[in-house]
Amino acid sequence: MTVTQESATLPNGLTVEAAKAEAARAYELDRAHVFHSWSAQEEISPMTITAAQGSYVWDGDGNRLLDFSSQLVNTNIGHQHPKVVAAIAEQAAKLCTVAPQYANAARSEAARLIAERTPGELNKVFFTNGGADAVEHAVRMARLHTGRYKVLSRYRAYHGGTETAINLTGDPRRWPNDRGNAGVVHFNGPFLYRSSFYAETEEQESQRALEYLDKLIQMEGPTTIAAIILESIPGTAGIMVPPPGYIAGVREICSRHGIVFIADEVMAGFGRSGKWFSINHFDVVPDLMTFAKGVNSGYVPLGGVAISPEIYQTFAHRAYPGGLTYSGHPLACAAAVATINAMADEGMVENAATIGTEVLAPGLAELAGKHRSVGEVRGAGVFWAVELVADQQTREPLAPYGGSSPAMNAVVGACKAGGLLPFANYNRIHVVPPCNVTVEEAREGLAILDSALDVADQHTN
Question: Distance (Å, rounded) from C-alpha 143 to C-alpha 138?
Answer without folding.
Answer: 9
